[in-house]
Amino acid sequence: MRVKRFIPLAGFALLALLLFKGLSIDPTALPAARLGQPFPDFSQPELLTEEVIGASALQPRPALVNVWATWCYSCRVEHPYLLALAAQGVPIYGLNYKDESEKARQWLSELGDPYRLNITDRDGTVGLDLGVYGAPETYVLGPDGVILHRHVGVLDEAVFERDIRRFFTAPGRVAQASAQEGGE
Asked: How far apart, in whole angstroms, are the C-alpha atoms of residue 48 and residue 105?
């Protein structure tokens, strides 16, 4: 009889433990389906030129591939930092995800364009192949086109320094990439 009195308390303690455990999960630590694999091949129009491109267009490397959209508030937050990285010579390619092309072109015209090119992914097929959960997400492509790292959420200076800079600090990598593009 006395044991029955403690059943609600034990249930509450178990629920509290599960809730605490669930709250301690880092939402940016989502598994990356393509980590260690080549960037998936695709055939999509480039946002500004509308020329059909594939994964081979993502040159030079190492490079970042940034998943963004005009409907994504966090993408607007990270945009100034992407402009700063591009100005430093970091090659960045955009994946305009489930967006309207005209709105995307207007966004880049108004806010600046950090991207060397933009993959238009209106229906999300490239994102699906890549394993995108949403926007923004940023992938690091190695020199051979293999995905080396994935960051979910806003890319800022702290994230870049902690998680991404190491992919660009091998002797001459960023400088080499800039030189290949005519010193941009």
From this structure: 7
DSSP characters for 28-50?
T----TTTTSBPPP--EEBTTT-
Which residues are CB-contacts of 184 (< 8 A; sequence separation ≥ 6)?
89, 178
Place of tokens 């945009």: 79
CATH numbers and ranges of domains, the chain? 30-180 (3.40.30.10)
CA proximity to 90, closest of 160, 12, 32, 137: 160
What angle (nearest 5°) sits at the alpha carbon of residue 115, between those of residues 162 and 50?
Answer: 145
Residue 94: enclosing H or E segment and its boundaries?
A: strand 92-97
Q: Mean pLDDT, 10 residues at a time, over the chain (184 residues)?
A: 67 62 51 85 97 97 98 97 97 98 98 98 96 95 96 97 91 40 36
Biggest CA pair distance of the chain: 83
Give the distance, in angstroms, between the CA of residue 160 and the centroid of all CA atoms in the same chain.
12
Residue 116 CA to residue 32 CA, distance in Å, equals 24
| Cβ–Cβ < 8 Å for 117, 53 | yes
